[in-house]
């Protein structure tokens, strides 16, 4: 999650943490989280299909999103995100066309692009974003969460003017459990300067 922590000027401090999912008797990586575009763009993606299709579907999304960022390298904010997400959708559709399964492996995601002091956030499926500012935590993404990801839904879009000291959290629903969110809020209330790495670990521990 990216967060700016400086009393007079904006500074980006980001950390990525991934919790492994339990699958029968093993633990596996389900979701992906990446910092891209020179550290100014972020992607969290969660597969929604059968476990054996998790890796192929998230790999397709990451490849498409990365390619879209490259295509839109001169674009700004929302335009860049729309291009990247559109590319991710196209790559996922192409991957689905090679499968024999009737139930296609959809993918939910939350993505963000930092453009100066503005953060552009797009989300769909089981993923969320939160903003912690001045000891208050507010949800950025819509509370009207509908099932379905890239294959069937349009993205929720938001733009935020960031202030020094803001902390933005991106993740899947499994990260934002009631217990995890309460724990993070308590820690930040006690110490607003808590490092992004510590906050990310608080979210992923109970996942």
Quick one: biggest sheet? 5 strands, antiparallel
Oligomer: single chain
| Helicity level | 25-40%
Sheet-strand content, in percent, reads 25-35%
Low-confidence stretches: 1-8
Number-wise, the strands total 12
Shape: globular
Number of helices: 4
Gyration radius from CA atoms, angstroms: 17 Å
For the termini, the CA-CA separation is 16 Å
Run of helices and strands: EEEEEEHHEEEEEEHH
Side by side, the strands of the main sheet go: 5-6-7-8-11
Structural class call reads: alpha+beta
Mean of pLDDT: 86
Identify the notable features of this structure and list them briefly:
207 residues, five-stranded antiparallel β-sheet, three-stranded antiparallel β-sheet, 29% helix, 30% strand
Give me the secondary-structure topology.
Elements: E1 2-4, E2 12-14, E3 21-23, E4 26-28, E5 32-36, E6 41-47, H1 54-71, H2 77-96, E7 107-115, E8 118-124, E9 127-133, E10 136-139, E11 156-161, E12 167-172, H3 178-190, H4 196-204
Antiparallel strand pairs: 1-2, 3-4, 5-6, 6-7, 7-8, 8-11, 9-10, 9-12
Helix pairs in contact: 1-2, 3-4
Explain what you see.
With about 210 residues, the chain is of the alpha+beta class. The chain is about 30% helix and about 30% strand. The protein is built from four helices and twelve strands. It has helices at about 55-70, 75-95, 180-190, 195-205, and strands spanning about 1-5, 10-15, 20-25, 25-30, 30-35, 40-45, 105-115, 120-125, 125-135, 135-140, 155-160, 165-170. It has a five-stranded antiparallel β-sheet, with helices on one face. Helix 1 packs antiparallel against helix 2 (about 75-95) and helix 3 runs antiparallel to helix 4. The model is unreliable at about 1-10 (pLDDT under 50).
């Amino acid at each position: 999650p990216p967060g700016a922590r400086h009393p007079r000027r904006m500074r980006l401090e980001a950390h990525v943490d991934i919790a492994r999912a339990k699958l029968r008797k093993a633990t596996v990586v389900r979701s992906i989280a990446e910092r891209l575009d020179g550290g100014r763009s972020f992607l969290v993606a969660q597969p929604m299909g059968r476990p054996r299709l998790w890796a192929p579907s998230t790999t397709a999304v990451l490849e498409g999103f990365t390619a879209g960022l490259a295509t839109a390298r001169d674009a700004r904010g929302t335009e860049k995100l729309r291009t990247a997400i559109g590319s991710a959708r196209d790559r996922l559709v192409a991957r689905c066309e090679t499968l024999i399964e009737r139930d296609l492996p959809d993918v939910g995601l939350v993505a963000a692009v930092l453009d100066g002091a503005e953060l552009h956030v797009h989300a769909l499926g089981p993923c969320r974003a939160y903003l912690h500012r001045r000891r208050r935590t507010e949800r950025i993404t819509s509370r009207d969460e509908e099932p379905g990801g890239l294959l069937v839904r349009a993205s929720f879009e938001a733009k935020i003017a960031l202030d020094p000291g803001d902390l933005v959290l991106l993740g899947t629903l499994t990260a934002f459990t009631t217990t995890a969110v309460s724990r993070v809020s308590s820690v930040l209330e006690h110490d607003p300067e808590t490092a992004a790495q510590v906050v990310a670990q608080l979210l992923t521990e109970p996942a």
